[in-house]
Amino acid sequence: MSHKGEQNLFFLNLPDARKLCSVTLSLLFGQDDGELRNTQVKSCRELLSLYPDILASPALESFEEITVIMAITFFKTGIIQAYTQRHGLQMGAPQRVLPSTLQVCLSYTLTVKLAPNWNKVGQFLVAGMDFLSYSGKLNAVATQLSVSESQLCLSVEADAVRLPPATLEDFDIADNVIRRFHSSRDTVIHSFSLPSNWCYILPSMKRGQIISISHQIPAECPFQSYADIRKHWSSLYGYQLPLVDEQDVVYCSVYFKLVGERLFTYPLCCIRAEPIQRFPRFDLQGALSSFMLDLRGKLQSVCGFPIRMTSKPCYYTTSLSTPGSQGPCSRPVNLTTRSACRPVLTQLPPGIPRNAPFASQPDGRSVGAQYGGGGAASQAPLANAAPASRPVPAPGSAHKIVPIFRNKALDRHVNVTKILAERRQQRREEGGQPPAGSDGPAPGPASSSKRKQEARLGAGQSQPGPASHPGVENPSCQQGHYSQGIGRDLEPRESVPQSPAIRTEIPALIPSSVGGDWFQSKPKKAKVSVAEVDVEHYARSHQLSKINAASLQAWLRGRGVPVRSKDKKEELVAKVMHCLSEP
What we know:
Blueprint: E1 7-13, E2 20-26, H1 33-50, E3 55-58, E4 65-71, H2 72-76, H3 79-86, E5 90-91, H4 99-114, E6 118-121, E7 124-127, E8 137-147, E9 151-162, H5 175-183, E10 189-190, E11 198-201, E12 206-214, H6 226-237, E13 251-255, E14 263-267, E15 271-272, E16 277-279, H7 285-298, E17 301-302, E18 305-306, E19 314-315, E20 392-393, E21 400-401, H8 416-431, H9 445-454, H10 475-478, H11 500-503, E22 509-511, E23 518-520, H12 535-540, H13 549-557, H14 569-581
Antiparallel strand pairs: 1-9, 1-19, 2-4, 2-5, 3-4, 6-7, 7-8, 8-9, 9-16, 10-12, 11-12, 11-15, 12-13, 13-14, 17-18, 20-21, 22-23
Helix pairs in contact: 13-14
């Protein structure tokens, strides 16, 4: 069962990059890749334990380099130069600190400093020094860092995970083979006795195949005892392996397809039969609070400069909360993403008369804004829509707000004066002279239908303006608008029929899921093709820049590494190299 938790965002101020510098420390050659990688990681962790005012990380693109970030004042003291001389390292010239370099070094430094209270397992940091021997649910967090020139955004997602220790029964070994193995220390379980030999190796949770299981350390293993292995895992990963008697330790020889014929030796406590399991919980606040407490204790300064961290988390949101919905225990509203929704006017702003016309101006602003109405609602533009739009009633109001939409396809002018004169002449011929100061008899059922018929005067002409203003041309009609007012005494008018030539010029309109708005359809962007490439081959050749971002994202997702669609290509390359560098 999987569960997608909520991302809690914390922000930290970072020291001025102009006060920092980065150097590259190079190891001596002459070792194979495995030993060189171990020496690289151990030297980096030793640097971080000796000098708390630096940030460091193993280089992602090579096994013989370490990137170190420090204050310029610390570099001038000569301490780091003395360390490199004692250990036979070579130091490059100091360089300007880039945000990408700072992000990599800060992420690795935090992982080192939080161990063994929080241990790296795949993409998670799992709580507890004894998590290797615990089979129940464990608190865990998934973190992501995003660094700018002066600020760090830390995304923390709290989870409950389960990582039970592996047993021999998990690999479908026959019962008589297991009994014989426990009865004699010389017994070895070979691959032909392992029907299910796939396993997952800590801390990276990479998949491998068990070739053999024994009580004795295999001959190809560089360590002589379980105590040496415990020391190695502590200095390399910060893990505290269970304290077990030498005679009770079970060793597994594991084969990795990408590495080749070389076998690696792991204690059974560092192997899992299944990937990490995530479980939903009702309250993950305890895990988040515990992690942030440890983080603030370990991260009080960066390169010797004090920092400030936000005390309350921010959250991604796509909607606004009303003041009444926020109780005393509710989380603060933080807008960290822009909403694609536009504000909708649900009531008239203060100061606007009820009978004021509500029309859309050519620049998209509402006429209601001219009356001094405040707030975003009074500035909300009206979208272009089909001519026969229905009036939208405002919730909780007895009055109807009928928006006016502009038809861009009709651009012909209407002579309202001429239409009114023709109507008066027609009424004189039918019923005699109307009273002075009146355009005709009071509107009734017959006259209403007659006015609708009279509105269709001339081919292609628009509707006449209101009859209460004779002799004045309607500006909205001149601009091709379809005018409707606010009030129950005005009935909606029919739309003018369009000729086929005009219809072909109208863009395709798609109704939104909310209703009331119409949006112009746009062609979709072509998707970036995801090519099946050998990412490991390109990484060994230092040619990852030739692979497109979509292929890198697909490769990382296939290995459980969290990526975002907006990640830059250099960030994806860094994640690929970091993933390949893990054992």
